[in-house]
Amino acid sequence: MKKPILGLSIFILALASSPVPVVASDRGGFKAMAKELPRAALAARVQRVAVLPFVPAQNNSVEDGWRISEKLVTQLVRLGKIEALERSLLSKLLDEHQLGKTGVLDPTMLRKLGRVAAADGIITGSFAVIGPNIVVNARLINLETGVIIAACEREVEREWTRGLLAHSNQPLFVPAPEFTVEVPQIAQEESLELKDSPGEDSCAAAPLRIDRMENQILELKARYWARRLKKGLSSSSLKYNPGSTISDPELKQQFYERMKAWYAQDSVPELTPSELKRFVAVDQKALSLYRKCGI
Fold it and tell me: Residue 138's beta-bridge partner residues?
């Protein structure tokens, strides 16, 4: 008998080098950038970088700028050549120290960011949307000298937009466990103040906003449900799949992979009261927006 964590797959439609300028139009664009920039970083003794949200060159959404930075960070971490500051930590630092969140920073802000983030390099740049694709210009800056030590340009698919459905008939299969469950209900001592823009009740860019919330609690969520499975989750409680609120295929797959990894352990540590409180607050907020907007 197969274990629940190795159950059926959910069918999901895809939502979908040198410091140049050289445009390479392919799905490996972010991978190519993540290979090229660290080479220059290591040559300049830059070990830890902060990747800022990219700046729209046209009248495009700033959310695309955050998505680009997230994709680049993912590839940098996978290659492991240099350290990349975790996205939620960077956002917190930008908020706490009142630094620009659009990717536009003057030299003074750059130096301040380097100090508070313990980073010696920063990756920033601009982007322009061209049909279903996006042209990304990235620059690596040495925070000690303020000198641009590498630059590259790539054209990549804007795969995180739902509009890509019209351009692709290829399905994407993401491994999923054989269960659906309701968000846990616990006594709410107080509501956590979660920043979400635009407006709290708006459905504008809802899938992206939900993904950003889920990304903040991904590890906690994976650990929680892995523990529930090991404790003998009952099929009588089936209501909805805990990964169904995640739109980004890569993020969804990461969630299931982390849950499988935890499930494979001899024991899964229980969430602490503070971890459980944060997980429930964020996940319920994401689920509420998911249901309200009919995603």
Answer: 125, 152
Rounded CA-CA distance 126/106 in Å is: 15
**Domain 19-161 class, CATH top level:** alpha beta
Per-residue pLDDT tens over the stretch 112-131? 777 767 788 889 899 988 87
Distance of alpha carbon 67 from alpha carbon 17, whole angstroms:
23
Low-confidence residues in the chain, pLDDT < 70: 1-28, 59-61, 86-107, 109-110, 116, 160-202, 204, 233-240, 295
Give residue 140's pLDDT. Answer: 92
> Which residue, among 289, 229, 214, has the nearest Cα to 259 in the 3D structure?
229
Instruction: Give the containing element (helix H, strand E) for 149.
Output: strand 148-157
C-beta of residue 156 within 8 angstroms of C-beta of residue 134:
yes
| Domain map (residue ranges) of the chain | 19-161, 174-292
Q: What share of the chain is helix, strand, coil (3-state, %, to 5)?
A: 40, 15, 40
What per-residue confidence (pLDDT) applies to 294? Answer: 75
**In sequence order, what are the residues at sequence separation of 6 or more whose Cβ sits closer than 8 angstroms to the Cβ of residue 64?**
54, 56, 127, 129, 134, 158
Predicted pLDDT of residue 266: 83
